[in-house]
Structure formats: structure tokens, C-alpha cells
Structure of Transporter:
Amino acid sequence: MNSGTLVASLIFAAVLAVLIAFVIQLMIRGWRHRAERQAALVGTLPAVPDTVGAPIVAPTRGMYVGCTLVPSWHDRIAVGDLGYRTKAVLTRYPEGIMVQRSGARPIWIPQESITAIRTERGMLGKAMTHPGILAIRWRLPSGAEIDTGFRGDNRDEYARWLPEAG
């Protein structure tokens, strides 16, 4: 390789690295602006209670997909750590639902805040050919309604979570 080609290759690589860094910076800035816009709407999450009764639905292992603002299943909530996917365990108690997430704070969904529990084919970029997402719709203390998505390791366990067909 001659010196002219080497210099041109190095310049191209440097320009490409700067361009990639610029695009990443724009993405981070966009995520922060989304969080700022949503902060007042989301407000504070309900506190995790000190004690709860015995579980009425056994723990279900899987993946916390994220939370979205109702009615759009694409409008991911970016406030705090609600927008990050992580492994999780979902447990239902008489007082509400606990979402214990790996590497993130747990989410407590009070029973009186739950408006619906259903399965969905897609949520937050997770689209499936079958209903593979367990979606919990609930009302925040601020009054906003959100959907919390969970993809269980075993979809057969969803029947325990869904209201009785009647």
C-alpha cells in the first residue's frame, strides 16, 4: 500500500469515526429530551409496599419489555429506568403486581390502578406472529395510563394472569 492510499484510508476512518460518534450523541440527546417531555406526565411511581400478602399468582420469569403511554404501543417511556429491557420476575399479590427487574428498581402496580391485563402480538419493537407479550394497563398516580409489557419465558403461564373468560 502506498503512502497516499494509507493517508486517504486513515482520513476516511477518522471521518467515519467522528460521524458515528455524532450520530450516537444525537440519539442520546433525543432520549434525554423524550424523558424531559414525559417527566411531568409520568410523575412519581407508586412506592413498593413494606409487606404484602401471599402471592395469588406464582412468580413468572421472563423479560420486562418496557412501558408505553396509552394508546400507542410504540411510545416508549424514557423516564428513569422504565425504558430499558431487562430480565424480570412478575408476581401478583392481593395488593397488586410486583415487577422485579435485574439491574433496575422494582415496579409496584397497585391493584386499584390496574385497568386491564391482556396479551398482545407486539409492543415496543417486539412483534410476534402470536400473542407473546403480557400487557398490564394501569393508571399512574399522575392520572396517565400506561402499558407495562412482559414477555414470559413460558407463554403457557399467561393463562394464570388473564381474567377468567366468562
About this structure: The CA atoms of residues 19 and 120 lie 38 Å apart.
